[in-house]
Amino acid sequence: MAKMNSTGMPVLCLGEALIDVIERAGEVEEKVGGSPLNVACGLASLGHPTALASWWGDDSRGNRLEAHLLSAGVEIIAGSDHAEKTPIANAHIDSAGRATYDFELDWQVPPLPDATQISHLHTGSFAATLAPGAGAVVAAVKSMAIRGTVSYDPNVRPSLMGTPEEVRPQIEEIISLADVVKASDEDIAWLYGEGVPLESVLHKWKSMGPGLVIATRGPWGSYALCANDRDMLVVDSLNIEVADTVGAGDSFMAGLISGLLDAGLLGSGAAKARLRQARLGDVQPALHRATITSGLTVSKVGAYSPTRSEVAEVLTADPTL
């Protein structure tokens, strides 16, 4: 496997980095979190030059975020620490293990590098829809879509996004600009209704412009559609003992971007064109890498970021993956 995208320019992840304040059975603990942060750490762990643009405070929690990112090998875009205070997500875990969230945050975007200075832009979650920063995120997506490639994970947060009817136009605008879109079955059910088939939503998204659309289905694997292929690919999940599912979707996204970069299907205007012509067989290795990284993450406690050597070990043990 090649080590990184051939341009040598970084992938830019744009979105929230925050502290999860987790309350479970009367105990409270704090952990570094945020979907774009997790994707950035996952890509860096897989050997890709990666930067994160976010919005946190110059305080003790912000210092913890910075230390986590730097230890993972992620470059921090200057100005990301200019928030009044570091955002937190209060997670309340019930007896069945289900989490409900409320957030204390302000979302803005620091000055971003020019699109010519990055190889690929990834964004998602509430950062792409929450004012006032959402406008700058969409502007960055539009700029990158002209010159290179964009990936997007809606990663819905109902407590911040309002109703599905309110936020769906914003989400669909970014889908229409993106090259790769990944969403969970739970996200899709919230956006379009429990009774709407995943397949119909994926076909709708495919018709809006992306080269590759994917729905992850937890233990039931994932569905994938390519713009240039009429069939749908079903990818089984990794058969692995689950410790917890924290960061599973973000790890899947990191593995997917990594595999597509290595395949020359993301990272430049030429790669964008190749992705539009790709068939399912061309993207299958990247989907398998995503499945492996996600599986390795859920085998650990917390949002663990697997390395290339760990991915290689899984492939060695089962070459059919």
Automatic annotation (TrEMBL):
One of its GO terms (molecular function) is ATP binding. Its EC number is 2.7.1.92. Residues 11-306 form the Carbohydrate kinase PfkB domain. Keywords: ATP-binding, Kinase, Nucleotide-binding, Transferase. It is an enzyme of class 2 (transferase). CDD domains: bac_FRK. The keyword Transferase applies. SUPFAM superfamilies: Ribokinase-like. It comes from the Bacteria. The keyword Oxidoreductase does not apply. InterPro entries: Carboh/pur_kinase_PfkB_CS, PfkB_Carbo_kinase, PfkB_dom, Ribokinase-like. Belongs to the carbohydrate kinase PfkB family. This is 5-dehydro-2-deoxygluconokinase. It comes from Mobiluncus curtisii.
